[in-house]
Design a protein that fits this description.
The complex is a heterodimer of chains A (about 210) and B (about 190). Chain A has about 210 residues and is of the alpha+beta class. Chain A has five helices and nine strands. The longest helix of chain A is centred in the N-terminal third of the chain and has 16 residues, at about 40-55. In chain B, helix 3 (about 25-45) runs antiparallel to helix 4 and helix 7 (about 140-150) packs across helix 9 (about 165-185). The chains are: A alpha+beta (about 210), B mainly alpha (about 190).
Chain lengths: ~210, ~190
């Protein structure tokens, strides 16, 4: 496809392209133009964001009986260990870091439990929340907001008084992020979660126990 | 198990996705429970056929599970991201299954969602309200074309057939409608919650 098109021709088709309703060969021509034209690329991007929101207007519908179970089985059926590092590389805002990978076992879920606490600084300002969930695996999940852009450290304090550096994550200009980490710690020993900036200055903490 | 999921239900959508990307099967259960009505609703609206809609819905959740780590909050709320996957799958199924009749899309089925998810609800509600208002502000003929393209997944040629108008007119209306919506609806960032 070496066909060249003008910005006007691109604009005429940009809405259809945003809705992904153009034939593959036309699409290739349009995207080739967008790749080399900042203005048309920006136009397509903003139209696509709007086009993608329109799905929120669809009415809800009751799925057939048993759908939930079938869907979950199709999702997690094989329960393979996940490819942590590949996920980290792929994630733009949502960060997942694995500290050792265990295979999934679903037995004895009766022992599973969950704890959640707000992340606050010394003045009581909230920066999101932290959740610790465990059954066979211990998963620490964080929802962060209101942070300045930069790298942040996550530490876990255990009941023996030790601090464990879990990971360092970047936060972008939007100031938000979601992190999930499987912990190689006894969940019951986790006392609190600390967020520090890159220099080790405390930013916020959450007391879980 | 019941205790577990009822607790995990307190996680917001972004945290659930993060937990799913970390391989947490319980988060998957909560996610499906929370969003299955929205996904199936869009699928049945677009596909018409309940069996096809169920198939598309299940594939949506499989993709969410597989690609949870690639979600970008700067672009769209979790629910919109997920429903975009549903929409693409519906369109793919139209294109491969030529026997799917091009019925006139029932625009009267369009209603604001009755319920939302926990965290995403505030974002989604603000987005939906803004969208809905902007949509109602469009000239009716533009609105029809926009909904045929969006929730109908119809191409300009198909819409022209259904509406009995020239393809060029469809393209013009679609362009004007989407540009106007874009200018009127400012995406609500997660920060604004
Ligand atoms: Zn251009």
């Amino acid at each position: 496809m070496s066909e060249q098109i003008s910005c006007d021709a691109f604009e005429a088709a940009a809405a259809e392209l945003a809705f992904e309703l153009v034939e593959p060969d036309v699409r290739d021509v349009l995207l080739t133009h967008a790749a080399g034209c900042d203005r048309c690329r920006a136009e397509l991007e903003s139209l696509s964001v709007t086009a993608d929101l329109l799905v929120l207007l669809a009415p809800e519908g009751e799925p057939p009986i048993g759908f939930e179970q079938r869907a979950v089985e199709a999702m997690v059926g094989d329960r393979r260990p996940r490819r942590w590092l590949a996920l980290v590389a792929a994630a733009a805002v949502l960060f997942v870091v694995g500290l050792g990978i265990g295979s999934w076992r679903s037995d004895d879920e009766s022992t599973s439990t969950f704890r959640q606490a707000a992340l606050v600084d010394d003045h009581g300002t909230g920066f999101g929340s932290v959740s610790l969930a465990w059954s066979d695996d211990v998963v620490l999940t964080m929802s962060l907001k209101g942070l300045d852009a930069g790298d942040y450290r996550c530490l876990v304090e255990t009941s023996d008084g030790r601090s464990h550096l879990i990971a360092t994550w970047p936060i972008g200009a939007e100031g938000t992020g979601w992190w999930a980490v499987p912990l190689q710690l006894d969940a019951r020993s986790v006392r609190s979660v600390l967020i520090q900036d890159d220099d080790g200055t405390p930013v916020a903490s959450a007391v879980l126990n | 198990m019941v205790m577990w999921t009822s607790h995990v239900e307190r996680l917001d959508d972004g945290a659930l996705l993060a937990a799913m990307a970390a391989g947490d099967a319980n988060a998957a259960t909560v996610f499906v429970r929370r969003h299955q009505r929205a996904v199936f609703g869009l699928a049945i609206t677009m596909c018409g056929d309940p069996r096809l809609a169920e198939d598309v819905s299940q594939q949506t959740f499989e993709r969410v599970w597989k690609h949870a780590g690639t979600y970008d909050a700067r672009r769209a709320p979790v629910r919109a991201w997920m429903l975009t996957i549903t929409r693409r799958l519906c369109i793919d199924s139209f294109r491969t299954n030529r026997s799917t009749p091009i019925d006139p899309f029932d625009l009267s089925a369009l209603l604001p969602p009755a319920s939302g998810s926990v965290e995403d609800a505030a974002v989604a509600r603000a987005e939906v309200r803004g969208l809905h208002d902007a949509l109602l502000g469009l000239p009716p003929e533009q609105r029809r074309v926009l909904l045929q393209a969006s929730l109908g997944g119809r191409t300009a040629v198909e819409i022209a057939e259904i509406e009995q108008i020239p393809v060029g007119t469809v393209k013009t209306r679609l362009r004007l409608a989407l540009a106007r919506l874009r200018n009127e609806v400012r995406p609500v960032g997660v920060d604004d919650v």
